């Protein structure tokens, strides 16, 4: 892609979409749109669930800022359409996006690369979920049951007893047909954004999350002010640097570029960090974490949007 020049660009902010995270996407997209326009960027809103993607080419858009979340937004489908349209877009490419949204595939790759992630079982029934609980809920710790392909804790349950397995499986399976049971890691919950591509990729400051009763669910993420976000995170300096390096490895392991945000749990006893998942189209709402971390690094919200936009690219360049 040629050098970014505001005067030559017409930018579509892709927002809304058809996933369970549509409401959050509209909030993210509105923030990004306003920020880019405040910097003089010719940016316009575009909802792929209401308009044909072909209109992007017909109307002369030269770049896309993907503010879509979940299915049909950060799973490689929109990225593939933009590759065919030859319109550079923000965030990871087709393969990295499709892998990252799949928690099972992500874990397989991280494990192959020697990166720590909680133990898990793929289940296809209530009976299998009950067996997984017996295996994963060691030492009285809970188990997490969640769909393999959703974000924002949608369909997720923290299971503390065998009796909860039935409802937990039903909730997750109602969202996606692949269900994941995961060992619960008790300790500090942190998140780390990454900004950049290749050798220029860098991890931004770690944010430590303290949710009411330790329940960082969909409501706590986007619609309440009870959750505390600590940045500086208050972790020992060496521990924070180690987690940032781990997240950078996780980002590169999946072939990500542009930007993303990884969620990590730190075992309270051993202080071992465990990678949970990586979000390839992070939220950009008033409650979102990437802008919060960027601000701690001296990057304003509009500057962050512009930096992400300048990193827009394609997986495949023209012959």
Automatic annotation (TrEMBL):
Cell wall biogenesis/degradation is among the record's keywords: yes
Highest rank taxon of the organism: Bacteria
EC top class, as a word: ligase
Short name of one Pfam family: Dala_Dala_lig_N
Pathway: Cell wall biogenesis; peptidoglycan biosynthesis
EC number of this enzyme: 6.3.2.4
Compartment(s): Cytoplasm
Catalytic activity, as annotated: 2 D-alanine + ATP = D-alanyl-D-alanine + ADP + phosphate + H(+)
Recorded GO MF terms: ligase activity
Occurrences of domain ATP-grasp (ranges): 107-310
Keywords for the protein's UniProt record, in alphabetical order: ATP-binding, Cell shape, Cell wall biogenesis/degradation, Cytoplasm, Ligase, Nucleotide-binding, Peptidoglycan synthesis
InterPro entries xref list: ATP-grasp (IPR011761), ATP_grasp_subdomain_1 (IPR013815), D-Ala_lig_Van_CS (IPR000291), D_ala_D_ala (IPR005905), Dala_Dala_lig_C (IPR011095), Dala_Dala_lig_N (IPR011127), PreATP-grasp_dom_sf (IPR016185)
Keyword Cell wall biogenesis/degradation set for record: yes
Cofactor (UniProt): Mg(2+); Mn(2+)
Recorded family membership: Belongs to the D-alanine--D-alanine ligase family.
Function summary: Cell wall formation.
Record's protein name: D-alanine--D-alanine ligase
Source organism per UniProt: Rhodoferax lithotrophicus
């Amino acid at each position: 892609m040629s050098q970014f020049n505001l005067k030559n660009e017409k930018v579509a902010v892709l927002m809304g979409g058809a996933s369970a995270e549509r409401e959050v996407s509209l909030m993210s997209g509105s923030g990004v749109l306003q920020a880019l326009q405040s910097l003089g960027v010719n940016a316009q809103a575009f909802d792929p669930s209401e308009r044909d993607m072909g209109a992007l080419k017909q109307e002369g858009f030269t770049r896309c800022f993907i503010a879509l979340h979940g299915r049909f937004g950060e799973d490689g489908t929109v990225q593939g359409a933009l590759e065919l349209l030859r319109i550079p877009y923000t965030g990871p490419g087709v393969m990295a996006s499709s892998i990252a949204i799949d928690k099972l595939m992500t874990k397989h790759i991280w494990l192959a690369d020697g990166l720590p992630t909680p133990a898990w079982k793929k289940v296809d029934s209530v009976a299998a979920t009950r067996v997984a609980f017996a295996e994963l809920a060691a030492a009285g710790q809970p188990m997490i049951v969640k769909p393999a392909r959703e974000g924002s804790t949608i369909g997720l349950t923290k299971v503390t007893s065998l009796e909860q397995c039935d409802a937990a499986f039903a909730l997750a399976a109602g969202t996606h047909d692949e269900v994941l049971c995961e060992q619960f890691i008790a300790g500090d919950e942190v998140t780390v954004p990454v900004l950049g591509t290749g050798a220029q990729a860098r991890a931004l400051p770690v944010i430590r999350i303290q949710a009411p009763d330790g329940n960082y669910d969909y409501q706590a993420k986007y619609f309440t002010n009870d959750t505390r976000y600590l940045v500086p995170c208050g972790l020992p300096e060496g521990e924070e640097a180690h987690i940032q390096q781990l997240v950078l490895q996780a980002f590169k392991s999946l072939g990500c570029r542009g930007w993303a945000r990884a969620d990590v749990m730190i075992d309270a006893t051993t202080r071992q960090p465990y990678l949970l998942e990586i979000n390839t189209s992070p939220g950009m709402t008033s409650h979102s974490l990437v802008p919060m971390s960027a601000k701690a690094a001296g990057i304003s919200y509009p500057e962050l949007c512009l930096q992400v936009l300048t990193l827009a690219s394609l997986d495949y360049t023209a012959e």
